[in-house]
């Protein structure tokens, strides 16, 4: 009886707390999405426009700032605000794109392993183990060393590294669904394999898929920024918050703003995605709720 | 003469988002030294919360909100945290239901027994070990010295419960609370464990509160019985009277649900309905919705415990009719 | 113990085998290693010569056998940048990375264990909410930005620690905290939920019923049980620890394996990249095995069953 009461108390608390954070997350994510879509209209300058005369100007509230550059300029005189606005595009495109790739690959392999079993199961799950044993950043580095940086390659490289969690979850889900009555009945009634997959199994793993993706978008955005920071991700003229940070790092002693704002942008965006993802998880998949 | 334990109008409530849950709602009883009181009831009747209230271990969001718990004449509810702690395990001990999970898996049983001694008597390691091994011997564990160094998972369920008894009785407490001590055990071992508790309690003149839903256990062990329903005591009498002259329809129901070996018919009687929702405070008798004797009057006014014979308390408007 | 080691080895071999295949496929199939090795101005003739010299005109499976044979002998080829065998280059960087990783893990644990425990014991209080919030922010902050901000605060503004390089204790403080804070953010929440579960166990109730002080109930009975999952939680962080060193070493110019790997990737120095990947993978696997040993030591149930 005591247990039951405790649980109730916590869920009420966390519901209140989470829904507040959930809506905050939704607002942040929506904001970033809108900024990314309307970047050309919002951004005051071309993010790549150089101006060697106005190098390293501080943000508006500091001495020596220029009113036309709200958040200051970087080492090449580019407008930081404009670059931040354009940078959101890369973060979102890579974040969503890579998650779609890993979701697709992982779901496909997971379905294969779970539905057909036998050798495909062994092969796929062993490969998943091996992938799991290697730090993902390492794998990405090897791939990027081979194929070279760029937006599209980045999406595929991150996507192809992160499929393991999808494959595992989907396989588990398929195995449990396979044993449920309605699927057995459908099979007994002679439903084809493809029909089974699309009609019965895929709809059932949708919510798990969404929940997993929420968490993965956050890590992917962080990965993209890390790789870009290391000079292995996005190449100019594309703008990434990660590359902005690596540019700014050299001027940290004199111009803190060059590396502070892009970092803030990453952190806030990732926070928004995490909050939204947690909220989605609570709503869609109560089983995955954190243990409290 | 004052009793070893006297509980008066104990009220333990849980604050929940849906309202206040009256888990224990005005319970009174006494236990004397060497006496065994059985508290009987379904799960959710408040019997375990009663025992945790006596131990001062009701956990959040539960709270003892009313009544008094007099132990040797002192009100436990007035004790400081430290004073209460010093009573626990020394003057008042408890044996829990699950010997499997009630022992800490990563400490040896020896450590867990001597820990009590070292807490309350400041014994050194060696003396505590000596005493713990004696205690293991007392609770009927062969090879006590060897078992001292074992981990709980290396022992059988019965052995573990013997260890729990050793932990509970090593400081020779005046009051022992046994919360469903044999429910999780095999039938054959149940009897041994009960006998052991009974024997040690008699030897040390310990008062025992036995919490159970098993009337067979009650018949074997108890001197007095308190039947709890919906956070209240509905009948309180000597064990003979409970079995021979049950006067509350709920007690009768419990008795009827015992399998009777003598009768050809082996069917189990089970009480219709479920335990009441303690969030709603009802005007009438809490048992009325499940009672076959219930009348209009029962739904309207709440019965109080009233004397229905020598030391036989019943809270039922129709006690006489029920007794037949 | 012998049997246990054999079983462990049986798990390591297939994983390393698969890693070798992945790396082989990436280097030999996806990209033409000749292209990676020669400058873009090389003629087709040059390529053919190099291809024959490297045995790349052989069928794939034969190439793989040669490759595996060399790898097993520790021969990953020569680094074209340093002009030396790749493996020793990688190995001489290991101590620096170990040093950084160990200190970072220590910092992570020293922060996360108490925070997670306080969060659990005082759950749903202001303290719990603050700790939870800080750990989410820690998770959302990119490692390298944390490093840069620490430099900004402690080196540029306060002048307390050097900005880069390896040397005395003062050099390791900032990079280790950079990684450690990130690890702590990951672990705190896990430790909290694991501690919550332990606090609701029956044996905690037993400990209280014995009359133990709450400090001992939590510190002795809950903490020791809580340590067991902490080891698992720790081992789950090895991968993010590696990721952390890769990036953080670059931020602080810490002369470790991560920095070497990143520069080698940038220069397409494939021999070094492959050697580094193999060594790092091996280290991760050995760490996981060690975790298993510690786990056995901490939990008597496993030892005897």
Automatic annotation (TrEMBL), chain A:
Residues 88-277 form the ABC transmembrane type-1 domain. SUPFAM superfamilies: MetI-like. Its main location: membrane. Signal peptide: none annotated. It is a multi-pass membrane protein. InterPro entries: BP-dependent_transpt_permease (IPR050366), MetI-like (IPR000515), MetI-like_sf (IPR035906), OppC_N (IPR025966). Gene3D superfamilies: MetI-like. Keywords: Cell membrane, Membrane, Transmembrane, Transmembrane helix, Transport. This is Peptide ABC transporter permease. It comes from Paenibacillus montaniterrae.
TrEMBL record, chain B:
The keyword Cell membrane applies. Pfam families: ABC_tran, oligo_HPY. The keyword Heme does not apply. One of its GO terms (cellular component) is plasma membrane. Coiled coil: none annotated. This is Peptide ABC transporter ATP-binding protein. CDD domains: ABC_NikE_OppD_transporters. It comes from Paenibacillus montaniterrae. InterPro entries: AAA+_ATPase, ABC_Ni/Peptide_Import, ABC_transporter-like_ATP-bd, ABC_transporter-like_CS, Oligopep_ABC_C, P-loop_NTPase. GO terms for biological process: peptide transport. It is found in: Cell membrane. It is a peripheral membrane protein. Residues 8-255 form the ABC transporter domain. Keywords: ATP-binding, Cell membrane, Membrane, Nucleotide-binding, Transport. Belongs to the ABC transporter superfamily. It comes from the Bacteria.
From TrEMBL, chain C:
PROSITE patterns: ABC_TM1 (PS50928). It is found in: Cell membrane. The keyword Transmembrane applies. Keywords: Cell membrane, Membrane, Transmembrane, Transmembrane helix, Transport. It comes from the Bacteria. Gene3D superfamilies: MetI-like. GO terms for cellular component: plasma membrane. The keyword Transport applies. It is a multi-pass membrane protein. One of its GO terms (biological process) is transmembrane transport. Residues 94-291 form the ABC transmembrane type-1 domain. The chain crosses the membrane at residues 12-31, 100-121, 142-160, 172-191, 227-252, 272-295. Belongs to the binding-protein-dependent transport system permease family. This is Glutathione ABC transporter permease. It comes from Paenibacillus montaniterrae.
